[in-house]
Amino acid sequence: MSDEKVFLVASSPQIHHADSTSRIMLDVIIALIPAGVWGIYAFGSRALTVIAVSIIASVLTEYFMCRIMKKNTLGDYTAVITGLLIGFNMPSGVALYVPVVASVFAIAAVKWTFGGLGTNLMNPALAGRVFVFFSWTGTMTKWSSPAATRAIDTLSGASPLGYLKTSLLDISGNISGPVEILASYPRSGFSLSMSDWFASALGVRIDPVYYDLFFGNIPGCIGEVSAFLLIAGAIYLFVRKVITWEIPAAYLVSFSFFIWMFDGLRFGTGFFSGDIFFHLFSGGLMLGALFMATDMATSPLSGKGQIIFGIGCGFLTFLIRVYGSFPEGVSLAIIIMNIFTAMIDRLTSPKLFGFVKKGKAK
Amino acid sequence: MKSLKTFPKGGVHPGDFKDLTNKEPIRNAAIKDSFIIPMSQHIGAPCECLVNPGDEVKEGMLIGKASGFISANIHSPAPGVVKEITDIFLANGLKTKAVVLEPSGYFDQLGKNIVPADWNSLSAKELQEKIFNSGIVGLGGATFPSNVKYMIPPDAKVEALVINGVECEPYLTADHRLMLEKSAEIFKGLEILQKVLNPEKIFIGIEANKPDAIDIMGNLAQESGGKIEVVPLKLKYPQGDEKQLLKAITGREVPSGKLPINIGAVVSNVGTVFAIYEAVVLNKPLFERVVTVTGRGIKNPSNLKVRVGTKVRDLIEDCGGVTDDTVKLVMGGPMMGFTMCSLDTPVTKGTSGILALTEKEIGKSVQTACIMCGRCVKVCPIGLVPTKLYKNITHRRYQDAMHLNLMDCKECGCCAYVCPANIPLVQGMRLGKKMANKKVKS
User: Fold this and answer.
1) Which domains does chain B have, with CATH numbers?
2) What is the pTM of this model?
3) What local confidence, expressed as pLDDT, does residue A361 receive?
């Protein structure tokens, strides 16, 4: 019998879809690269250093945790993603020990104390970011201007959302909306010419600041500024079926709705007058909604649960951004909803095929 | 375009690879030097073996007698001499008694012109008996004895008889070819079933990847009057499961833990209907069936008419053998089929295909921890949360798994197919069911 060929014996199903954990994680990395490259272009080589330090710190922590826990999950790229996202969530000028602390906290405390891959309660990268944000708020909110407006930026790199929040404290009386407050905000040459070009092509002039917001010529964290490239990356993930529509759609739509409904109140323009586009493309919303809230381990399993989760994220982001004392609320909103995930899963477990209520059965 | 019917929740779309064999006409498999005929080829009690070593048997002779309410007769697939009675392992891992037969002598049926029996004079009860005597079981794979299925409780009425021509498993084309080549016979079988069950309406469900079969069966249905309707279905696995099929065609759900007859429906496979035709009209008991031998690892993929008891080794040889890059041999379809522990495993009544799969086809990846992607939840046609069940089972919390409706799992394999972490979910469910049953008993 020894000359006979040996075949595999396995439980059904005998065929398997080509996707694997590492392939999914690799796709996420690929999708994040354009926005990262833009961040490095906008904020200079210092941004690259921050990202590299974050990734190295994450992977090293993962390596040591694997040694301690006697597991091996280095090959699945998840630590690389955590590091990458932490780097994305840092201002380029941050002191380098900050991303290191964030990475160690994210991997060791948030991920591994709960059992590692797939069992963490919160998105490790976000928890790491929030941890260092409240520890070193100063260095974590000191932005630098992007390449496109560095020469003309007189506001020493205030982010649009931060500038809005501080300005609102001084301004009384009615204003039309965020754009009026941002009148003195630097606009890049690129956005001015885009605005002109669109005005001549379509006959509608859109304030150049929107182009800067959309394409990423604003101060901010390294990876969050270019809404355009983040959306492009998310489309790639969508095509590769790594993410599904539920969370991003529920998040962005519910957030837009609440902003549209209530944000006008801050400026005295009443209900249903909030500036949706300003809020959609500023801050970390795109990075959060497309890449962080969609983290598989910390979001609900079923489509219905994911929609509830997305709406919760949208509502909390709106609440913190508009009424909180911080200009930005994406990371906190997602972390809070992460904690609710288990409960949402329990409440939205799918209906059993042929389910009959007890007592009603014949 | 009118959208095609299908079941609403879950399901997957593996590549179907049916083009390997869907143009291959059914041909007879060669008869080799021995048959191994298991005494358990159906769900239910194994047969009582009626022969002893040295006995001479004829083609179609009763050699295994149904022993119990849910059981089915087994007939000799060929004339010959019983060499020995031995214990073997079936593809699904069960140990059973088997008759080893060395063929010799003359075939009574093969190549003979058989005069069709006049079945019209038989009553429904006599037809039922005929079906029982011929050892007919559901040929879709479940192998549930057909006569038991057709025993309609007195308070129930068959509103819909659904004929399953879905063949949702990838690769398999046995039912497809049967519908193309034996459509008239299948409709004869349907007439017999009508007499037995007296259904109000008959549906034939066929997936849209078999347009030629939909045409042929559709034309015959039209000729036969308005009672029979061919329903083209959207491609989706596991549509061939009777509960999914009923949901797709009638829109009704069989209650959890109940049978189709609870909603006034009976589902039978096209292969079964053909077997009923052969049994009633040609007086030929069920001892052969169509088997698709396919996969990229088979040199000449074919649809074969195979006598029960033929060894897998012989069938593969019949199809030119396997290529060097074959890594897995499967009995049944790729989603629910079994790998065998021996090439001498025989074909039984429930064998719909033999697959030789190459490394590329099985698409195996490394197992990692669950990343909670929720894909298993989205594809589960039953509405289970496979990852949660699996975690409960691996932690030996069988009761908790039962509360999460473990017993409703029918092991269709959708969850394990899509799982990016490559977790053996179906294996887990099987283990969980076994252990839970054990606990209930003790």
Assistant:
1) 113-281 (3.40.50.11540), 375-441 (no CATH)
2) 0.91
3) 44
